[in-house]
Amino acid sequence: MAELDLETDGAALHPGAACDALAEIEDALAGLPAGQAGIRLYGRAALHAVVSATGPIGRIAADVLGPSAIPVRAILFDKSAAANWALGWHQDRTIAVAARIAVPGYGPWSVKAGVHHVEPPFAVIERMVTVRVHLDPVPADNAPLLIALGSHRLGRVPEAAMAALVAGLDTHACLADRGDVWIYRTPIIHASAPSTQPTRRRVVQIDYAAHALDGGMAWAGI
Fold it and tell me: How many CB atoms lie within 10 A of CB 15?
């Protein structure tokens, strides 16, 4: 398949873009438990410095969103033979915020790893991009991210309509080498199958935004 385009397909690969930052990222993640489906990375100044808009990873987001882009949430996914989960087709619809504030259009609320999360108006999600930094190789048999091409342009898709909609779209497996970076439009419909030949597959996923939230609400950040 031809190289993907961020605006047309909803995702694009930047080969080797994180190679020079891998040691710093792994140092910033030192001490975290292994084999977790998703560890929220909050209050980690060392990681924030590596993925800010002025560095090689954040610049990928800033090239799309502009120089005001900031990392607003980060999650470590650590899949292995001992933690080999699957996730069906879905859209990411929640954001992490600094505090709970009652603002029309924002809800429902939840708390994950001590951080407030909320579903905002979908227009907020449509203005964001998500970057995935690969710390390990992801061949076809090691659970690459699956994306439904062009689905980022379809707005908020009801859960009940998700499977039928994806069946009518082309899908793509986002293969990667260590140090590769994938960027995708945050609303894209995506999934993760279990690995068929599981080896360790660590991915740091960072959401970026370049706009303020409504009603005095603030992004949680990293």
Answer: 12
| Cβ–Cβ < 8 Å for 146, 4 | no
Q: How confident is the model at residue 188 (pLDDT cuts 50, 70, 90)?
A: very high
pTM: 0.95
Query: Rounded to whole angstroms, how far apart are CA atoms 124 and 101?
Result: 16
Q: How far is CA 35 from the centre of its chain?
A: 18
Can you give the pLDDT at residue 154? Answer: 97
Question: 90-109: string of b/e by CB count within 10 Å (b at 16+)?
Answer: ebbbbbbbeeeeebeebeee
| Amino acid present at 15 | P
Question: 3-class secondary structure for the chain?
Answer: CCCCCHHHHCEEEECCCCHHHHHHHHHHCCCCCCCCCCEECCCCHHHHHHHCCCCCCHHHHHHHHCCCCEEEEEEEEEEECCECCCEEEECCCCEEECCCCCCCCCCCEEEECCEEEECCCHHHHHCCEEEEEECCCECCCCCCEEEECCHHHCCCCCHHHHHHHHHCCCEEEECECCCCEEEEECCCCEEECCCCCCCCEEEEEEEEECCCCHHHCCECCC
The separation between CA 134 and the C-alpha centre of its own chain, rounded to angstroms, equals: 11
